């Protein structure tokens, strides 16, 4: 007969997410961003403002980022199958990594274009520049708040990367407004270029942060001190050695641990209790609730 108390503690990782709110938020943001990106691009061309054109390209990259995020979120809600036994959660990390690289590429492009315009300045239509930037500021604040609000219920690295895109847009809109005011009173067109370069550094920082986080997850780097965990587990009675010990992250939420445990006293009745103790320490102290534990014995498994 199965012990009901034991069965209640028995668990597995789902390897998929409930992302209903994130999905709706991303889809709505995608449609709104596409419309405004086209408006800003046309406005930037008409006003001849590098800040507006750079921001419109950034927003078009937001459209691509949001589109990729929408695909990733869709797949992250799908359950594992025989071919993808860990599900599709890693896809959102891959998407976040690409989004981060796009941010970095855009920031570099804006700097290069800015340097070119220092030597070849162009006239700017201040009214169009200021008006579109003001609308852009309101738009970006709205989208940023919508995305940020969705994170309160559902954590998602893709949404975080999207927020960085819109924070960049928001700062850029502020920069364009400030630039247009300064240019209006001073006539220094170069202010537009300087502001766009400053903004590009902000974009680069955000892109680097997202790319680095995603890259480390893809490389299965552990954010937990493995040696410290091993020492803690070695205090469990009968454990003589722990090897093939790995801790890695499926995404920015799910952490896994796998290990071979060598026992120094052959008593198979202790095996399940030892595994339970290992799992309890990993879950309670390190928030690791998905484990793979293989029991080995000195008298049976040869470990020179």
Automatic annotation (TrEMBL):
Residues covered by the Cation efflux protein transmembrane domain: 27-219
Keywords (A to Z) from UniProt: Ion transport, Membrane, Transmembrane, Transmembrane helix, Transport
InterPro entries: Cation_efflux, Cation_efflux_CTD, Cation_efflux_CTD_sf, Cation_efflux_TM, Cation_efflux_TMD_sf, CDF/SLC30A
Localisation per UniProt entry: Membrane
Entries under SUPFAM superfamilies matching the protein: Cation efflux protein cytoplasmic domain-like, Cation efflux protein transmembrane domain-like
Membrane topology: Multi-pass membrane protein
Membrane spanning residue stretches: 26-46, 58-76, 88-112, 132-151, 163-183, 189-208
Domain Cation efflux protein cytoplasmic residues, every copy: 224-296
Gene3D superfamilies cross-referenced by the UniProt entry: Cation efflux protein transmembrane domain (1.20.1510.10)
Pfam families from the UniProt entry: Cation_efflux (PF01545), ZT_dimer (PF16916)
Family: Belongs to the cation diffusion facilitator (CDF) transporter (TC 2.A.4) family. SLC30A subfamily.
Entries under NCBIfam families matching the protein: CDF
The protein, known as: Cation transporter
Originating organism: Gemelliphila palaticanis
